Amino acid sequence: MDVAALIVEQLEADGFLKRLVMRPKGRHPLTVGFPDECDESPSDESPSGPFFFPDEHNKVVFKQGFENCSRLKLSKSLFTAVNGTYHLQLHRSGIFTVEGTQSYYALSLPEFAIPEEINVQDPRSEMLLRKNVLRDDERKRFVIYIECRPQHGGFDFLLKVKFRIERAHRQFDTAEYHDEHVSRYGQLPYEVFLSPEQRQDVHRFLASKIDPNESLTNRSASSTGITDRLFEVPLQGDGLTEKERNGKRCAKIIEEMKLIKRAHSARGFTITQIREMHKEFEVWAVAANQLNREDLEHFNHPGRWEPTVGYALLLLSKEYGDKSPATINDWVKAYRRYHKRVE
To answer: Is the same domain home to 130 and 221?
Structure first.
């Protein structure tokens, strides 16, 4: 994966911390992989760190930079050890990010450290963020990876780790770490799957003030316009013609395909990953029922959907008994005209 920046830190049991920041330079994009993705080097060569570098130039830059970077002693407010249990707390803010890509932060725990608890938190919302945790058997360290995407002009997080060090009985070699916020694919912010107009709707909704004395019925009604526009469905009520009703369903499926395309192009998710995240999408059944093996292979590669709306109209024309894409488009326009009338 290509990244805008790498922030690599390594903690030792005595509380000293090494830190290196890398960014792309010149003609060398900064491309990295996780260490379990490839056998990076011969067994007689020490591993370069918590990332695999397919570009030899970047590999050399990292190795030299990390060997020569300074070591800082953490204060007792950030790092303590009591009865063999270590507690670490790090606050990182303003991490460099670029729209449309990600940066990565990696913290290597001390040798033979086995994590018992790892929490990554947004310092503003206090929401727990996702992280990836791998055991690096070559370096005998657990590594915590945090994907950093544009947020408030940079990326901020609070990392809290509780661990113990086990050098005896080979406990490290079989140790694993899991919790509900461990994910290989990092954060899943809703903005990635929304158009700019839909983001504005959600931001307005989240920023709106809620009267605690307001009834749930009225509160639900006041938010319906925003939440329903995410898939361009009308407010609840009768009055749709058959043409408008068909257009409503087609508009929803077109929006689903737009979201799939954005998830693939902006984040690099495969169709399998997107299907797992959005099992509720109706387009999966449409594709399975209407496409032959060759066409389904094309569908399973969203990068080939050019243009996305045109491809969606072709798929929907099969769904509706070979109606022309122009007819499907007319249905969608009719529904959207209805939607504007009832807003």
So the answer is: no
Segments forming the whole domain that contains residue 215: 192-230
The angle at the Cα of 174, spanning 18 to 165, to the nearest 5 degrees, equals 45
Which range has highest mean pLDDT (96-105, 221-230, 295-304)?
295-304
**149-162 tens-digit pLDDT:** 876 567 899 999 99
Q: What percent of the chain has pLDDT over 70?
A: 78
Whether the Cβ atoms of residue 142 and residue 109 lie closer than 8 Å to each other: yes
Comparing CA positions, the residue from 27, 51, 26, 48 lying closest to residue 37 is 51
Same domain, 110 and 54: yes
First-to-last alpha carbon distance for the chain, in angstroms, is 43
User: Domain ends where: 230, 251, 282?
Assistant: 230
Q: Please, is 144 exposed, middle or buried when counting C-beta atoms within 10 Å of its C-beta (0-12, 13-18, 19+)?
A: buried
Q: Are residues 251 and 311 in the same domain?
A: yes
Domain count, the chain: 3
- Cβ burial 173-210 (10 Å sphere, 16+ → b, else e): eeeebeeeeeeeebbeeebebbeeebeebbeeeeeeee
Q: Which letter, b or e, does each residue of 32-59 get, where b requires 16 or more Cβ atoms within 10 Å of its Cβ?
A: bebbeeeebeeeeeeebbbbbbeeeebb
Same domain, 176 and 72: yes
Residues 239 and 131 in one domain: no
Token pair 């929304």: residue: 194
Task: From 95, 90, 110, 93, select the one nearest 161 (Cα to Cα).
Answer: 90
> Residues 326, 287: one domain?
yes
Cα–Cα nearest to 120, from 150, 88, 152, 142: 88
For tokens 């805008």, the residue is 4
